[in-house]
Amino acid sequence: MATANKNLSDYDKSTIPNAKDFRFGIVVSEWNDTITEGLFQGAYSTLIENSVSPESIIIWHVPGSFELIYGSKKMQEQMVDAVIAIGSVIQGETKHFDFVCEGVAQGIKDLNVLHDTPVIFCVLTDNTMQQAIDRSGGKHGNKGTEAAIAAIKMADLRKNA
Ligand SMILES: Nc1c(NC[C@H](O)[C@H](O)[C@H](O)CO)[nH]c(=O)[nH]c1=O
Ligand SMILES: CC(=O)[C@@H](O)COP(=O)(O)O
Asked: What is the pLDDT of residue 14?
């Protein structure tokens, strides 16, 4: 289902596990910071709305989405129950977009395979700035909200697995 057919901010609160005792790490890329700040606000507010304490959320910033890989690896070492990696990659004139997107996706996948703390892929990979705006609090909702819900569910799965 394409994002156009689903609002990224919609979720049924009655289906969300109790998150009050979980600790989360959020790693935020500074590239396209107006977008990543919107994604962060969506993720952070959703964690708080689901009873996570502000003191239980560690927040770090990295230069760009490619650095989310290293930042998330170090965040996994911080005794958190899940990590949310936030970035916004927007197509430019060259193939660099392809390499950054593929590199980050593969790197975060690897962190989920190699280590026991789930890392949630909250990285927008858009053709245009408008697409990024639409998915970071615009008409299609906020992927940060979606990522926070995924983080809570994966932290709960990890606890019970
Ligand atoms: N063009 C975008 C980048 N590029 C920077 C890389 O992520 C990386 O920081 C650099 O190659 C140094 O290692 N990053 C984004 O997050 N978004 C972009 O649109
Ligand atoms: C995703 C990128 O690295 C890209 O935005 C950089 O722009 P350009 O391809 O024009 O150098």
From this structure: 92
